[in-house]
């Protein structure tokens, strides 16, 4: 996925309002969760755009914050507890 994000710029006239990151935990899918993903997401997100993810991993939170996203925990659903 992350290798395709830079190519989106060639086709997009608009930026993205919202992202939903459903790539399992970084321990289960380490290739997805990386700085390149966060940088490209920020690059293609509209001002005041949002994202949601099920992962509560601190490395993901810190990575998203480092590129400029504001990260907050929200009450989650079911057994997850936070989103």
UniProtKB/TrEMBL annotation:
Listed GO MF terms: oxidoreductase activity, acting on the CH-NH group of donors
Residue ranges the record marks as coiled coil: none
InterPro entries attached to this UniProt entry: MnmC-like_methylTransf, SAM-dependent_MTases_sf
Occurrences of domain MnmC-like methyltransferase (ranges): 3-79
Alphabetical list of Pfam families matching this protein: Methyltransf_30
Protein name according to UniProt: tRNA 5-methylaminomethyl-2-thiouridine biosynthesis bifunctional protein MnmC
Organism listed in the record: Rodentibacter pneumotropicus
Gene symbol of the encoding locus: mnmC_2
